[in-house]
Amino acid sequence: MDSGNTAWMLISAALVVFMVPGLALFYGGMVRAKHVGNMLMMNMASIAIVPILWVLFTYSLGNEGDGALLGGLSAVGLDGIEGVNDSGVPNLLMVAFFMTFAAITPALISGAVADRMKFSSWCVFLSLWSVLVYTPVTYWVYTGWHHTGLDPAALDFAGGTAIHINAGVAALVMALILGKRRGLGTEDMRPHNLSILLIGTGILWFGWFGFNAGSAGAADASAAQALINTLVAGSAGMVGWVAVEWIKEGKATILGTASGLIAGLVAITPAAGFVSTLSAILFGLAAGAVCFYAIMLKDKLGYDDSLDVVGIHGVGGIIGGLLLGFFAEASIGGQDGLLFGEPAFLLSQIIAMGSVIIYSGIMTFIIAKALDATMGLRVSEEQEYAGLDLSQHGERVYSTSDKGMGMVIDLTDDAMATEPVEVP
To answer: 422 in a domain, yes or no?
Structure first.
C-alpha cells in the first residue's frame, strides 16, 4: 500500500461526499422559502439510498466485468474486493470513491423538478434511475464499449459524460413530463436566499478538487494538473458568464457569478487531467458564455427546468466533451485531440456523448412514465401552493414561533416598533 496515494484518495472521497450537502444548499438557496426543506431532503435522499444500492449490486454491475454493455455480479455485496491497485490504493477505497460519484449524479436532477415533485416518487425515481441509467452508462464510459469499442477510445476524466450529460438529459425529460411550476411567469420565483446559494457554491468548488483531482487515482502529476485546471476553469466560467450578463443585462449578479462558476467546473470535468492549463481557461470561458444563453432557451422552448440543470450541467458537459476532442494532449495524459493531429478522437467523443444522450433520454422517459402511471409524480395544486416543506415533510425550514407569530419591523420612526402578526 502507498500511504501517500491512499491518504489522497481518502481525502478525495470525503470531499465528494461533502458536495452533496453543498449541492443541497446551492439548490436550496435558489428555490422559494416554502420549498427549501424539500430541496434539501431530495439531495440528502440520494446519498442515503444510492450508497446502499452501490454496495449491494450496482458497483458490481457498473464496474466488474469484461462485456461491452454491462458488468456482472461477481462483486455483489462487495464480495472479493480486497488488496490494492497498481497505485498502491486499497481497492475497497476506490469502491468508496466511485460510490460518491454515483450518489451525487441523481441529486443533480432534483434541481429540474424543484417545487412540484412528490418526495415519495423522487425516492423511487432516483433508485430506479441509479440502477437502470447511471450504472450501465458509467460502465460504458470507464470499462465498456466507449473504452474498448471506439478507436481511439473516448475519454472522460471525471464524469462529464457519465455524470453531467447523463443527469442533464434526465433533467430535461423530467421537466417536460412534470410540466411547469404553477404560477410560473406570474409569481415571484427568484432565489429566496443568495447567501445560502453562495455558501453551497463554495462547498461545491471545494469538493470539486477531490472530484476532479481525485479522479487521477493517486497523488501525482495528473492530480496536480486536474487540480489547477479545476481552479482556473471555475474562475474563467465566472468571467465568461458575468461578462455576457453584464453586456446583455447591464448588471453583474451573484446568481450569475455562481452559475458561471459551476458551468466552468462542469466543462472541465471530462478534461481535467487531459488538457493544459491555458486550455482549461478556454473551457471555462466558453462554458460560462454558452451556458448563459442555454438557460435563456428554456422559455423559448417551453419547458420549466427550475434551477437550470439542463443549461448548466447538460450543456456544460457537452461543451467540455467536445472541447476535449479538440484540445486533449497525449503529453499531458490520455490522447491527442484534433488540434494535435488526431481528428478521429473528436468523432469518438461525439459518438460516446450521443449514445449517452439517447440512452438516458429514453430510459428516463420510461421510468418517469411508469411512476406517473402508478404512484403519480406531481403533488396536488393545494400542496404546491402550501409549499412542499409542509405538504411533503410536515416542517418548515424557517420557523417563527410555536404560535406561528412573526414580527413586523416599522422603520417609519427613529425608534423601531414591533408588533406580532399572524404568519399566513
So the answer is: no
